[in-house]
Design a protein that fits this description.
Number of strands: 10
Structural class: alpha+beta
Number of helices: 11
Distance between the termini: 69 Å
Helix content: 25-40%
Largest sheet: 6 strands, mixed
Strand order of the largest sheet: 6-8-5-9-7-10
Order of helices and strands: HEHHEHEEEHHHEHEHHEHEE
Strand content: 15-25%
Length: 353
């Protein structure tokens, strides 16, 4: 083959130098996530974590991975990339804390057709921010440039988190029983679920992403819908551990109430949810009205304003509510645990759509 026909990896669409430059650009962001047990340095073949240095004695490791679904499409189309990383962390670490685990470290996967260093760095800035909020070290990740697999400016994300909980503090506890109280903690909006339906409703409304949000004065539609998923670690971890009144936690994600609440209940038990107790955020009222979405579909697609649910004994419920209020939360008494009927999640009252 003649010299003018010799091909390089860059000719095929993969720029190794751009990848290396991006790693150097995000190194200070990663270092900012240091915590006990990890120095948050990147560049090796694997990330390290020292459980003993983190203070654990007899830990059980808990792992979770997730993405952000088609909410990512809105970030790409609006060019707002610095919040979607918070969602990525939140969707993983919230799944750790519901099992009583403290998030320890996080790894990310970023894939694109053509690496844009500025976009990737903005995404990682959000990931770092989420890790700091969750108390997790960002100890590694993977950046993949795959021309032919992703079109234009498209990219994809996946996150991986590991936490630990002392053996005696693992949730849910076995003593969840009929009559236990169900307490809800508010969400920040749609979090990272139901966005295929949200995008369908927006398309049907013929509103652009930069149009004023009908449900959030002073914000564009895209900006309002990109509100990051709440990270509940700092609120909930101090309430857990030995002697805690919390018997179970449920992260209200995809599948809403009917799919997520039963996941933390023993066989034969269900919950009765008082829908009238839920302060429905305006975004959900708008989605329901604009898309003609009825209450059952809203409840199985979205969190409807409740991002996390706690189960405790009735005698401890008011004390737990008071502790949540002291932590800056606005908890609601959602209902109670009952013997399971035909449906494990039953409803009383009406959702204020």
């Amino acid at each position: 083959m003649t010299d003018d026909k010799k091909l390089t990896y860059a000719d095929a669409g993969v720029d190794i130098e751009a990848g290396n430059a991006m790693v150097e650009a995000i190194r200070p962001l990663v270092r900012a996530t240091r915590r006990r047990g990890a120095d948050a340095e990147i560049g090796g073949f694997g990330g390290l974590f020292d459980l003993k240095a983190a203070g654990f004695k007899d830990p059980i490791l808990v792992a979770a991975n997730d993405g952000v679904g088609t909410k990512l499409r809105i970030a790409i189309e609006t060019g707002v990339h610095d919040t979607i990383g918070v969602d990525l962390v939140a969707m993983c670490v919230n799944d750790l804390v519901v099992q009583g685990a403290e998030p320890l470290f996080f790894l990310d996967y970023y894939a694109s057709g053509k690496l844009d260093g500025a976009v990737a760095a903005a995404v990682v800035s959000g990931i770092a921010r989420g890790c700091i909020e969750a108390g997790a070290a960002l100890i590694g990740g993977e950046t993949a440039e795959m021309p032919g697999l992703y079109a234009g400016a498209d990219y994809d994300l996946a996150g991986f988190a590991v936490g630990a909980v002392e053996r005696g503090a693992l949730l849910p506890r076995a003593d969840v029983g009929p009559g236990d109280a169900l307490i809800g903690v508010p969400s920040s909006g749609a979090h990272s679920n139901g966005f295929s339906l949200i995008r369908r409703i927006v398309a049907q409304s013929r509103l652009s992403w930069d149009a004023p949000a009908p449900f959030a004065p002073g914000h564009s539609l895209g900006e309002a819908l990109l509100t990051p998923t709440r990270i509940y670690v700092r609120t909930l971890l101090p309430l857990l551990g030995a002697g805690s009144p919390v018997k179970a936690l449920a992260h209200i994600t995809g599948g809403g109430f009917p799919d997520n609440l039963p996941r933390v209940l023993p066989a034969g038990l269900g919950v009765e949810v008082d829908l009238s107790a839920i302060p429905l955020p305006p975004v959900f009222s708008w989605l329901a009205a604009q898309g003609g979405v009825d209450a059952p579909e809203m409840l199985r697609t979205f969190n409807c304003g409740i991002g996390m649910a706690l189960v405790c004994g009735q005698a401890q419920a008011q004390g737990l509510v008071d502790a949540l209020v002291a932590a800056g939360e606005a908890p609601v008494r959602l209902g109670r645990v009952v013997e399971a009927g035909a449906q494990r999640v039953a409803y009383a009252g009406r959702l204020a759509l």
